[in-house]
Specification:
Layout lengths: L2 H21 L4 H6 L1 H19 L3 H6 L5 H13 L6 H21 L8
Amino acid sequence: MSEGDTLRLSDIFDHIDYVSGAVAGKSFAEFAADRELYQSVAFSLQVIGEASNNLSNQARDKAAEVPWPKIIALRNRIVHGYFSLELSEIWRIATKDAPHLKTQLMAAGLTPPPA
């Protein structure tokens, strides 16, 4: 794996862990009422999308079941279509899709080196 892929995967895992920790133990109502929280989660999802977009095709091919185009498209929606984002969608992605992405990456052997 290239050094660039290693750095991108490190960013992806770091931001997945942030998102998972940030929403742990919270309800959707608490999430929706905390602007700082939902904006920071959206930013982390944006970083995951940007890092995913910059992974090599070889790295993405190792985890072909990962919906890379959707992850990248979410990044674009957060950046360019922020006015049309639904908090319920961000919540679902943060609580379900992001942890699942980590599982998929690990199963494919795409993990950053230990810190």
